[in-house]
Amino acid sequence: MNKYKKLGIGLLLDALGLVSFIIPGIGEFSDIVWAPISGWLMTKLYAGKAGKVAGVITFVEEALPGFDVIPTFTLMWFYTYIFNKDKVETKI
């Protein structure tokens, strides 16, 4: 998958994670459903050990109340394609 397509998907998924703030009180209960889904999606977007670790971090971040503002999908994209750039390019 194109890295910019992953960025777009990540931004969309981060925005979807913020939806729980729209309905105060009740919205946090939606995180019970969204947390495992977001963790699973993270492991599908990013393969390997880094994807699995990011999946766990995403699950925990979404499950804890008030931490939805952290854009974990976008941060993982930056980690993969900006900070860890050399390792990604050698795999291609």
What does this structure look like?
The protein is mostly helical and 92 residues long. The chain has one domain (3-91). Helices cover 76% and strands 0% of the residues. The chain is built from 5 helices and no strands. It has helices spanning 3-18, 27-45, 48-63, 72-83, 85-91. Helix 1 (3-18) runs antiparallel to helix 4 (72-83). It starts with a helix and ends with a helix. The mean pLDDT is 86.
Total beta-strand segments: 0
- Using only C-alpha atoms, the radius of gyration works out to 13 Å
What's the shape?
A: elongated
Number of helices, where a helix is a run of at least 4 consecutive DSSP H or I residues:
5
What is the end-to-end distance? 11 Å
Beta-strand percent range: under 5%
Mean pLDDT: 86
- The share of residues in helices is over 70%
* Order of helix and strand elements from N to C terminus: HHHHH
Note poorly predicted spans.
none
Number of domains: 1
How many strands, which pairing sense, and closed or not: the largest β-sheet? Answer: none
Which structural class should the secondary elements be placed in?
Answer: mainly alpha
